[in-house]
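Worked problem 6 (solution included).
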Amino acid sequence: MPLDERAARLKGIFSIVVTPFHKDGAFDFVGLAEHIERVISLGYDGLLIGGTYGEFPAMTAQERAELFLRSTDAANKRVPVLLCSASSDLRVVRELTELASDLGGIPMITPPFVSEITDGQIAQFFADITHHSRTGIVIYNAPGIGITLSAPLIEKIAGVPGVIGIKQGDLTPSVIDALAGRLRGRLRLFCASDLAFLGPMAAGFDGISSTNSCALPSLILQSYRAIERGDLKTAGELHRAWFPLREVIRRHGQPQTTKAAMNAQGFKGGSVRAPLRDLEGTALEEVERALKTTAANPAVRASARAA
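Solution. The predicted structure is:
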């Protein structure tokens, strides 16, 4: 598939798939396949595998390769799949980028998270790494790794052949405005946080990636589709409906809170890997209360009746 056709498919709402582990740290590939099938069946536009909330830093390169294989097999070419091939080790980035491309996925790559790297070195890194993918690459601007790409640097990298999109984690309004104003139509623009996607979508972004779609798949999909059809009132009501869970997330972190919310509803969220810790005790009770409050929200009940 030509790069322009791949870029054209990068739009809408992508589920950021958390990686379910058993208590002993082994992969739960049954749970992974069940989630992929759930969101594709509901109508999600794509998947994101092995990102920061997919816990890639806690995996070996071999484990990440197996995750790519299992996920693309479960997706079976039905939707676009972003495969995070980021690493501080450039040998791993090259290896996983080539594998992601060979599997028909689109590699998603952060800048190398090493200390005191310069903008020039970051730009050259992206120029070099694109040669390892036949399917293009998506930049992952993830401030959580300790590096935040500026709007001017993103614009420079956008000129590199093979760069087809960006997953933007810096949601500063002035930055969102600059990216939408200068890069819309040149790159596919994805909001990296479903905690605050209303603004970037209104500014002209092409889509969002949602971790909490793992826990609230129908609700978050309905909120996004309301934006697409121009019904901002409904989108806002549905987004506010799960604010109680967002508060819990801010207290206890990701992806452990999303996994706890999945498990509370009978989904196979599984466990996290160390150094993260599964939620216990009062934290789990907070998650369960938040889910009940959300389910009882009038907007959510009305949306469920209409679905």
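Discussion: The CA atoms of residues 92 and 137 lie 15 Å apart.
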